Amino acid sequence: RVSPSQSGVFQTESDLRVERFTESVSFDRRLYAVDISGSIAHAQMLADVGVLTPDEASQIETTLLAIKAEIDAGEFEFQQALEDVHMNIEKQLVDRLGDVGRKLHTGRSRNDQIATDTRLWVRDAIDAIDARLKNLQCAFVGRCDADAETVLPAYTHLQRAQPVLAPHYWLAYVEKLERDRARLADCRRRVNVCSLGTAALAGTTLPIDRHNVALKLGFADVARNSLDVSSDRDYLLEFAFCLTLIAEHLSTWADEWVLWSTVEFNFIKLPQQFCTGSSIMPQKINPDVCELVRGKTARVIGNLQSLLVLVKGLPLAYNRDLQEDKEPLFDSFDTVSACLELAAPIVAGAELKVDSIRSRLDRGFLDATTLMEHLIKLGTPQRTAHHQIGALVKQAMEQNCRLADLPLETFQALNPSLDESVYEVLGVDKAIAAFQSYGSTAPGEVKKQVSYWKEQLNLD
Ligand code: ARG
Questions:
Q1: Residue limits of the Fumarate lyase N-terminal domain (predicted)?
Q2: The pTM is what?
Q3: 95, 136, 137, 200: least buried by Cβ within 10 Å?
């Protein structure tokens, strides 16, 4: 039992159990395409600096591309005995090219190779997630015109607070997703740095050209310190964090819509294609997809936690512990990617139950704060106005009526500065119309924001 990384220094073969315990090819095979891109760039650079002949580099490139085509087609057999994706591909290369294949690993270590592979992979993963985030933003913005007139109660403490326009809700999520995209773009700058050429940890005595490799692989920069970069997984943790925050945002949305789809709320009808039934209760149309978007957040948070604990206290530079970074990384990516993919059609296809929402908008005194601000505009200090409107609400509660149903005498008994104009701000529609501030739910403001996002996202 000779491990592929065992050199002549070993006097004994490894224990039978080591192969299965240390292998990573069962999960890191997923890196094959970026591993091959990295190897081709490395071989070309070795030829550029005269370490390989151009012919040797071209044989390596052609053979690696042939191996890639076989893996793409599912015709390549990865072997656990060869430990990881790197050794599996290199072994094939050597089998096919002999000594020329044995030259590929010149001036390179698997330590800088795996860091390069994961950087390339994360870079693509960021771009894929960004596209899905944008797609979900489009789904939210895409419903703004149809829902333009719909007023929804907004909540604090899950108690009715103030009325808002439905597009104001949708754009709240668009903003969260935009920050997620900005975070990814920022993370990408630190991901997009070339670690190849740092070799095991100290660099190499061979005349490699790291800037040449970086250029070939589209990296914007070259890592300065070989010791730092061979231990660095910050870029991967940052990405895992970005994914976690996306999952949290999706979870908030999913939770809200699970609640809104209940008989009790009756605000929204989720598209049936994204609901499932019950094995016993025939009437059930359950929001399982939204529930699982919420539920899967747990594993994404868990993965981030695993990664943070994994790197804690590791001495410089490479440690085999780092092999454990891949499964949480892949799982977080796959999970968040799937959640985003499903969220978009749910958002686009859900129907607001406008009659049901409207029929209860008079409950919960959504216009109370607007009335208080009306009083402030007439010269009453805020604290006084707050207290007086509270007293009015108490009266309305006792009479089981809306604020708008109270007679003018009641208002004037409370504060003589109140006149007929009070009725101009009562009721949710008037309350909405009274909003003015930048970023508020004022119809004009919301309209401006919808146009802004349509332009940002190149819609219509
Ligand atoms: N499979 C390893 C990892 O994922 C990369 C190889 C480096 N291994 C080593 N023994 N130096 O981190």
A1: 10-302
A2: 0.97
A3: 95
Q: Are residues 350 and 252 in the same domain?
A: yes
What are the tens digits of pLDDT across the range 44-86? 999 999 999 999 999 999 999 999 999 999 999 999 999 999 9
Number of domains in the chain: 3
Q: 169 and 307 share a domain?
A: yes
Tell me the pLDDT band of 283, cut-offs 50, 70 and 90. very high
User: CA separation (Å) from 268 to 153, 256, 261, 353, 444?
Assistant: 13, 10, 5, 5, 25
Same-domain check for residues 350 and 409 = no
pLDDT tens for 148-190 read 999 999 999 999 999 999 999 999 999 999 999 999 999 999 9
- Is residue 441 one of the residues assigned to a domain? yes
Same domain, 292 and 382: no
Residue 1 CA to residue 302 CA, distance in Å, equals 36
197 and 75 in a common domain: no
**CB 199 near ligand 1, within 6 Å:** no
- Best mutation site among 109, 195, 319, 323 for ligand 1, i.e. most ligand atoms within 8 A of its Cβ? 323
Question: Domain residues for 162?
Answer: 111-358
Nearest ligand 1 atom, CA 114? 5
d(CA 27, CA 153): 47
The pLDDT of residue 460: 80
- pLDDT tens across 284-302, in order? 999 999 999 999 999 999 9
Separation of CA 12 and ligand 1 centre (Å): 21
Task: Supply 148's token pair.
Answer: 């333009």
Output the residue whose Cα is nearest ligand 1's atom 12.
323
Q: Tell whether 306 and 445 lie within a shared domain.
A: no
* Residues catalogued as catalytic: 157, 278
Cα 308 to Cα 107, 301, 327, 332: the distances in Å are 31, 11, 14, 14
- Cis peptide leading into 317, omega within 30 of 0? yes
Same domain, residue pair 288 and 351: yes
In a domain, 342, yes or no: yes
Residues 319 and 439 in one domain: no
Contact 34, 191 (CB under 8 A): no
Mutate to test the pocket of ligand 1, among 88, 230, 318, 326 (most ligand atoms within 8 A of CB): 318
